[in-house]
Amino acid sequence: MEYLLNSTIIELVKRDITQSDLECIVNAANTSLLGGGGVDGAIHRAGGKEILDECIRIRNKQGNCPVGEAVITTAGKLKANFVIHTVGPVWNGGNNKENEKLSNCYKNTLNLALLNGIKSISFPNISTGIYKFPKDKAAEIAIKTVKGFVELNNSFNRIQFICFDDENYNIYQETLSAVL
Ligand code: AR6
């Protein structure tokens, strides 16, 4: 499923993000940047030690990565050239700036990609696993934030939303056709 928005292809795909052949993949990390379960675990396992080594160097230099912020590393053994690690919010009822923080993940990731000359990028469904963000709300925030960014910046060729579970895939199908 593809949409064209301001000369950027917005694509919905169901797959394991470690198999992405785009230039950059996004990791749903935690503030420690030292790896974990879910998509974070999968990326570190498939990408190898080089990614963790760079995360450790970044952490030693600038400390924990705050929620909503992003850092960039090599993609090690993956097909992609870069991984952007961003930290999604833990869902805590919805009155703790969760929406704003999740939107910041997408904005700050795209800004960092732009600064690094990246033209194609794959996003997982940040915060919708272990961090328990409601999937429908998260999809709407992800799509609207990416849309807003692309309307202002013509720099990406392709932006992929990668869903791993059927529930997110179905929600994204509906939300993309409603929003784009
Ligand atoms: N490829 C694409 N998507 C995936 C993959 C994969 N290989 N594996 C899982 N997903 P989660 P979070 C989807 O839990 O909620 C880690 O421990 C999954 O179906 O990975 O942001 C970190 O270190 C879900 O829709 O991330 C943090 O501590 C989405 O990825 C914490 O989990 C996000 O699920 C972050 O939690």
Automatic annotation (TrEMBL):
It comes from Paenibacillus baekrokdamisoli. It comes from the Bacteria. This is Macro domain-containing protein. Pfam families: Macro (PF01661). Gene3D superfamilies: Leucine Aminopeptidase, subunit E, domain 1.
